[in-house]
Amino acid sequence: MTFVRRRLAVLPTLSLLIATVLGLTVLTGGPGVGAALADQPIQMPNQVVDAADVLSGEQEAEIGAAIDELAADRNVQLWVVYVRNFDGKSPQDWARETEQQSELSYRDILLAINVDDRSFFFDSAEPIDDYPAEDLRKIADDTIAPDVAEAKWTDAALDTASALDTAGSRMWIYLSVAGLAALALIAAAYLVLRNRRRTLATGDEVSSEDSALTVEELTTQPITTLNPWASELLTHTDNAVSISDDELALATAEFGDTATAAFHGALTTAESALATSFRLRHTFDEEPELSNGERRSLLVQIISMCSDANQALDEQVRPFDTLRDLVDGADARLDALADRCDALAERLDQAEASEAYLAESFSTAVAESVIGNSALARELIQFAQDSIAQGREAVADEADLRLPTAAAIRSAEGGVDTAAKLLDAISDVSQNVVLIAEKSTALAYATAHVGAAESLIDTRRGAVGTPARTSLSEAERLLDRAQSTADEHAADKLADQATALADQALTLARQDVLLWKQQNPHDGAAVLTGVLVDAVINEATGDGGFGNGGFSSGGRSPASFGGSDTSGRLGTGGRS
């Protein structure tokens, strides 16, 4: 089964700012570069690559198990590669090219070993707050260098994983007092919550001006304030990442991988930061023995990581809009969308029949995950058709209606894409209930349940809150580990845990959707599914889009590539 992977701007990129303050540096070992057969920088297919052929199968599996354990304990990914030489490059240059080709990012650490002249490279792909430069250098000097010098190739990787596990003990879930103070100082200098709206118990909303925090306010914020703030930010950031992934797929299909490479890089960075944020949130929720200081630090880190994710996307908004000018060739775009609507409409009857069969025949979490999909798809197809009609009117108007045209096209795109996801999910579940019956393995069971939770949350993103998303993120992490674990017993145990968390996510998500419908009886499928989001309006001109007047919330806008504060930049469009 193919399912959507979770992807996952209140602060600037704090982790990068902190890294600059701390002075992270590149670590290399050995004095020179070998001159034997060239091993060029590579795109690593997995986390252990033995291009030098110095490991046995058992040794490679042992290293893989240690890497899995490190990831589970510290939420950091160690990548190890053995080569004969660095292709005439410095260890740093060779490793950085390998990192780029392998798309390593936040919380990825590379150990590259040149076995011919016994040199190495060791560093994180991006700065990691809980692994400062001095800790990495100590591991390089005290652990890796002796093993490499003595050609202890297996020990070099195993000892590195162990040292990282020890160095990161409990540090990844909270900052030191000094680190938190530094974070507070940096955050206070840059913290501008431009469009964050917090609904208080009274129902009043906090304005942008009220949301800016001084140093004193940030360092003294109670957990009761930071907790809902971090939770809200996680949800909005997760939505922004998912929306960006959706529109980037359209841009890639239209313009190709090369033209969209920078956007894919930004999305990968955002996904990594978001995954870390959910891991931190899971720790916050599931470890009651944490002190208040540790809990506060976790929440501040979540806010920082979500800021990183939004910042990465926001930096690419202008070039993305320049590349993907929706008004260019508007007639052709509208015609193609109309054809897609017609094709989807032809699938509705069969989808409704399949959904009814699943509801009647299978009382399982997977089958129940698609109940209501065909009705939502039907409403979204109609929404898309209405948006297409609005787009045609805007194109025919003699005035220059670029924003209404773009908003109508993007609304229609979101409608047809989400309708297709809903119908595809019915087909997938129909196949999976049969697959589970025929092949009742723990891994197959977990794959189906996690996929069902992914689909439900992705297609109801306008209603689903942070608890369901956190459970899903942890389920995905455990499923990934289960799929890459050689030990069958360990894999089954991880798969069972993933299934339980996926079912928890499904239950929480369905509760969120039910509550949302009760509280928003007049909002339709486009808002529930996240096709329409809160609009970002230019304060200077009153129009959607970028300008010099700042932004505020007003109306609904089709969701677009960007961070949580820029996704609704097209301005009001479509019907809700």
Automatic annotation (TrEMBL):
One family name in Pfam for this protein: TPM_phosphatase
Domain of life (superkingdom): Bacteria
Keywords: Coiled coil, Membrane, Transmembrane, Transmembrane helix
Annotated spans, Disordered: 547-576
Transmembrane segments: 171-193
Gene3D superfamilies attached to this UniProt entry: 3.10.310.50
Record-annotated TPM domain positions: 48-166
Positions in coiled-coil regions: 327-354
Name of the protein in its database record: TPM domain-containing protein
Originating species: Gordonia alkaliphila
Upper lineage: Bacteria, Bacillati, Actinomycetota, Actinomycetes, Mycobacteriales
